[in-house]
Amino acid sequence: MSERGPVKAGAGPDVPSAGADLELMEHADGEANGAADGDPAGADVAARIGRDPDARVKVAAIQQIGELVRGHLELSADAVHDAKFAAMWRRIDDQLEAPATGLWSRVARWFDRYRGHVITGAVSAGAVAALALILRPGTPDAGFAGRPGAAIDVRPVALRATPEIDSLDTPGGSSTVINLDDEDGHTTVIWVTPADTVEGI
Amino acid sequence: MRGPCYDRPRVNKAGQRASIPTHGRDPVDDRDLVLGAQRGDRDAFKTLFERYHRRAYTLALGVVRHQDDAMDVVQDAFIKAHKYLDKFEGSSSFYTWLYRIVMNLAIDHLRKHRRVKPVELDEMRIESDGDDPLLPRILGGNPGRALLDKQIRGRIDQALDELSENHRAVLVMRELEGLSYEDMAQAMSCSKGTIMSRLFHARRNMQKRLLDLIDHPSAELVAELTGGVEAEDTPANDEAPAKRVPAARSRS
Asked: What is the CATH number of the domain that holds B62?
């Protein structure tokens, strides 16, 4: 067993608490290991259920709530007339995409399937090209080769520098931040890829 | 495009329930239907729809709590499943894949059409009495018979409505689909401990609501359970009519 909730301080095995009842719930759900699995805590719960009538009733209550919820929802679903689902299928059928048959359709599907990889590759290639342009030999250093007579920028370095995004926190996905400097100024490319939550989607 | 003619069994409603496996009984395996649908056979996909639409609807209804919304969720889920079917590689069963789509769409639907107060507030309220244990009581009698009682079903509906989205989603996944704590944690992107906590609070609150109905029955319920004989002179809120409920229900 694992990740049990807190047990009330001073609560003995026969004193009801949410923590102790969590163990009962694990047992009722078949999530707890028993003595046969070498888990002494699991054996303790089984022993508690054996000697404590209240514990047995609580396990029965958990199972009963499950039956009531499941039964109620299934009866509610059964009450929906078949005609409604038949109408739903017609709407679905109208919206289903036709299978790809032509060359263009197959190319489109291939691109749709690997779109993420293709775009990532394109962005990476663009970034490499931009870096190559920036770092190419003979590029004048703006810090030393300014126009003769130009005013000296006396602002602190922190104020002179363009604000940059180094990283981005994207829960449920990943992100890539690319900062590009060229003759047109500063460009930041942010690429966010949502994490797959369902296989293939 | 016409595909092979699949032998579609007339699966009755009970046969579409989560507790009764369809594999091994149906002439055409889900995997063959998925392969057919991936090749563009709409009949194959229709068979998958016929096999699982009501089960998917039950799941959606449990989460979104509104019939029309649940129908929309199921419809969108099948359209989405068809759209991405070529990416389904069969690492799980088709229904396991489908129910995750249904669950994601149902939760998205709740977030977009939030009719109740935000989850965080609701969860805080529930967590504030987090040390309450379960009550060592059950409803008397057979749950199947209890479900014939409109007021009990109404109270189940009410109790489900009062749960936060997260608590309800966990309860529905567990009770309808029998998902393990670990699977639910993956589906909801949270820890196993969080799942246990949500499930425990959901069950305890359901229990409180249902026992409250039995302890404090309405005059209508007392009249229904006693056949109207004792309705006038029964002190409904003072005694413990729970003991009479099973006997009264045994009439059906």
From this structure: 1.10.1740.10
